Amino acid sequence: MYIGVMVQGRNRVISYKVHKQITVPEDEWFIVPNTHEAIVSKAVFEKAQALHKRDTRTAPDKQEVYIMSGFVRCADCKKALHRKLARNIPYYHCRTYTDKQTCTKHSIRQDKLEHAVLAALQMQITLASELSAEIERIKNAPIIHKENKRLEYALKQAEKQLKQNNAISDSLYMDWRSGEITKEEYRRLKSKVTEQIEQIEESIAYIQEEIGVMASGIGNDDPYLVAFLKHRNIQTLNRGIVVELIDTVWVHENGEITVDFNFADEYQRIIDYIENNHNNIVLIENNKVV
Known about the structure:
By secondary structure, this protein is α+β, with helices and mostly antiparallel strands. It has helices spanning 42-52, 95-100, 110-139, 142-177, 183-215, 223-229, 239-245, 264-289, and strands at 6-8, 11-13, 21-23, 30-32, 72-74, 82-86, 89-93, 107-109, 246-251, 257-261. Strand 6 (82-86) and strand 7 form a beta hairpin.
């Protein structure tokens, strides 16, 4: 309801005699989007739902949540790391090790953790900036523009040929009916024109596919680029940035960390786009040499 979606059928009465309700599986619910004005955006709603699943405890006698609360996990047992004080220095540690001795020691000081996460974020933002620049270089590459024009011209020519052959196909019937050609000539010519039409249609489909590949670019409004590039000048870490950009921080036994960022699918799409276009440029250049 928060994002303008009506959901019905979550529960069902067993029968008119037995009024007890049973829970209906989610894939059987009736879900209708855009039935009313949304209270919050879908992105904000999904972010809130993700936070509900995390351990987001507040500091004692305080309202604010620790910056990394709910995001830090043991790289081996995958359990959430807990925050504790040792000589008034906050640490994150693996309770599977301290309580059950079934894992190995994983701990890191809070200040070192936040410093490392900030450094990882800065590196990711730099990467996003480099990817954005590479996308612009691809879009502005002269050879890409020339190839687009070549494909557009080839498509127009193929469509013109298709129109001409369809007209010939239509006229053959009239020629046969008027007696200008025999029935055998009509069948032979009709078969030949039909074969040509099929070949042209295959060429058009191929050209359209090539045009689609060339046009399926990445814009400046890509969620990954927007999310990371707006924090270009980040110098300090805060809870909002962590929630927006980070999925999980894994702490290893040696104190090193691995950061899983949000927008992983969008990031991979950008990498694929750049690699595919680099391959296209090489192919185009090779064809021109040939």
